[in-house]
User: Fold Na+/H+ antiporter from Catenulispora subtropica.
Amino acid sequence: MLHAVGIVLVLVVLGTAVATFAGRWGIPAPSLLVLAGIAVALVPGAPTVHVAPDVIALVVLPPLLYASAEEISARDLRRVWAPVLVLALGLVLATAAVVASLALALTALSGAMAFVLGAVLASTDPVAVTALGRRLPLPGRIQVLVQSESLFNDATSLVLFKVAVVAAAAGSVGVFGAVGKFFVLAGGGIAIGAALAGAVALLRSFIDDPVLETVIALVTPYTAYLLAESVDVSGVTAVVVAGIVSGSVAHRITDAHTRLHLHSVYAVVVFGLESVVFALIGLQLPTLVRDLGPGDAWWPLQAAVLAAALIGVRMAWVWPTTALARPTRSYPTWPLTRVVTWAGTRGVMPLAAALSIPLLADDGTPLPGRPLVLVLTTAVVAATLTVQGLSLAGVVKTSGLAVAPEHAAAKEEAARAAMDQAVVEYLDDLAATGKVNELAVVRLRGRYAERLDPDTDAALLEDLAMLRRDVLSVQAAELRRLFAEEQIGDGLRRRLQAELDRREAGLDA
Assistant:
């Protein structure tokens, strides 16, 4: 126990150091963490790391998936549902088939275990994509497309994975049973996630304690996952749906103090978990390689072929999808295809699925091919996180799709101007009615963000404090109007709302 705790602490410290340098060098932290993990594992005397099959799936995935889903705008998701559906279903099935065929031809894996490997590597990873995408100046609709596809294709890949594991362990599988299982897993997960998010939103609307609301927010993803898995439906889908619903209503049911507190706590939790899991991917690879048999010496070449195949299949599927789908066909086809293809990194989800492969078959014998599946999965994940992750920013910049800094700045400035204009109009109306001290209105207009002299009249201070709160409410209402009328995107809305929250918290202080 102490050994495991020590390794986790070391990984968090390693993640902190890596994130510091990654920020200075402009390199995605997940990619650098994987490389750092491999470097540490190769040091003589480094401890051997073995992760229990359920640890990542149960402890790490729910909060990371939930945090990623909360960043998705429900409004923007409705716009891109068609290409998301095509990629989350068709691309996953096509990728699994191609990878399974290649694995059967290149490795000694049985047909069932090759299918397991295809299902494991079929989905992109929402945690990795979100972590990489936070720094990319992509248009909002493309960003939502990439993140949403990564979140929702997990339902398909996990159904395939469960069917493949049953086939590998028992030697049989039914096609009609698999199709029915898919609808049960996906539909049940959606229902549980939406119902839980609604119940949690109702509960939080009656609570005004930031600490208590933070605890509820931290428990929600685990509750969604465990509830869904307990009734044999998709826990991942339940967490994703709960996150999207909660993220869409959070700004209406919480106050500034709670939002600031939640953001701070969740940022620490997500950073710690991401540091551990991405470093663990690199740290485990040398350990898994040592467990391979003598007949699996060609695994580096096999992993390289599989990684190249993943990119090729993804590009072949993304090209017609984005060219024909209404939400994306207005963008240049080839640049958009390059960006969406290159954003399809693998990460935590494939690793968690591979680690959950049972050790023994139904007859009690060791499951053949499991070590090779783990090595190939970890190698492909490490390769995509490093190669694609390190070069994704360059692909975005050369695609012509990147949002110009001056354009983003102008849009933000226009939003701020609209909010300030709403305040001026509100103060003019207030001054005309004579309901408050006229001097308070004048001073607030002239010195909105400045502190007043301590000797100022107490009544004037009270009126100023009241006006400042009213002004913040007016600006928040204007911000909601700008978002509702689609004049600004969800990212800018969240950033400006955070500024208003900090100002409101400062008034209370």
Notes: The radius of gyration is 25 Å. Residues 256-290 form the longest helix (35 residues). The chain has a mean pLDDT of 77.
